[in-house]
Amino acid sequence: MTIMQSFSDLMQQRQQREPLKRNDPVETEVTKLDVRNLNFFYGEKQALFDVSMTVAERSVTAFIGPSGCGKSTFLRSLNRMNDIIEGAHHNGSVLLEGQEIYAPDVDVVALRKRVGMVFQKSTPFPKSIFDNVAYGPKIAGQRNQKALAEIVEQSLKRAALWDEVKDRLQDSALALFDVSHRRLDL
Question: What is the pTM of this model?
Answer without folding.
Answer: 0.60
